[in-house]
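Exercise 7.
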Amino acid sequence: MRVLIVDDSRQSRFYMQSIIAENSAAFQLVAAIESAANAEMYCVRGLVDMILMDVCTADNASGLAAAEKIKRRFPEIAVIMVTSMPEHSFIKKAREAGCEGFWYKEYGDTELSEVMARVAAGETVYPASSPAVRIGIASSGEFSDREYEIIRLLSEGCSRQEVADKLFISPRTVRFYIEEMKSKTGYTDTMRMVSDFIENKLIINNIK
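Solution. The predicted structure, written as C-alpha cells, is:
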C-alpha cells in the first residue's frame, strides 16, 4: 500500500517513515508532509492507498477535517488518525469522519505497524477509550460525555445560563453537574478545574 504521512512533527514523521521502511514488502512511502491542507492533492493524483494523519498539523490545518473531506471524496483510501493528545472527543470525531484507524503516539500498547497491517487487511482499529489522565484526584475516565460537554462550554467562556441554553437543560442541572465534578476532582474552584482539563489537553477547542 502506498502511504502518505501527514504530521508537523519531524520526529514523528521520521518514526513513521522508519515503520514503513521496516515493512517495505507491504507499504511504500509516497511523501511525508507537514500540513493536512496539502493531503488531498496527493489523493487527487491517485498516489495514495493509506494516510497516517495527525490530528493537529502545520498551518493550523485540522487533520480531522481533512480526513473527513478525503473519505467523502475517496472512500477507498484508508485513513489512520494519530495524535499525542488525549482529547476526549478525537476518537468520536475520527469515527464520524469514517477513518479506519486511530493510534496514540504516546499511549497504549498497540504498535503503529500492527494498526497499519490490520487496517490494510480490512479491519477498523481503534483504542477502547482515550488515555486516562489525572484531573485533581480523579481519572479522566470517570467523567461522562455530558460532563465533558459542560467542561468544554465552560472552557469557551460560557456562563452557567449559556451552558444550560446550549444543552437544553436547566441552570440547576448545570450546577449539579459542576458540583459533582468538583467532588470527583477535589477542586473547590470551578475555573481551576476547567483549567486542569485544558492543561492536560483533554479539552482542545480549536480542532474541528
